[in-house]
Amino acid sequence: xxxxxxxxxxxxxxxxxxxxxxxxxxxxxxxxxxxxxxxxxxxxxxxxxxxxxxxxxxxxxxxxxxxxxxxxxxxxxxxxxxxxxxxxxxxxxxxxxxxxxxxxxxxxxxxxxxxxxxxxxxxxxxxxxxxxxxxxxxxxxxxxxxxxxxxxx
Length: 153
Known about the structure:
This protein is mainly α. It has four helices and two strands, in the order H-H-E-E-H-H. A two-stranded antiparallel sheet has the order 1-2. Helix 1 packs antiparallel against helix 4.
């Protein structure tokens, strides 16, 4: 579930404006208001940073489920090696969807790439690639929709 950001509320006061006589006086009036804007922006940026990884994983879940349906299941080892996760890497969110981490099972790449072998439908070679190709525009749409919700707009 995407957490919606509470919209930023900024005020510049009410009542009559008084005449400012110097730059230092104007600076003293504006400084607290600008600091409040900066605090709200930092709060928003932190919120968006925290929400990005779950949003990307949620956007990839239907694709992962489709790849699980397409994945050959002769022994069950290959399909159970599937994973979907996100992490931060060098300050960025990285999502990873895949099979056979650590090369277990070792035959995963062959099953995925060898087109000459026939599989009982709906399983197939290129099971992960096919799921991503079919779902790419939907993945992007889900990410954008949930980022918009998270941003509070």
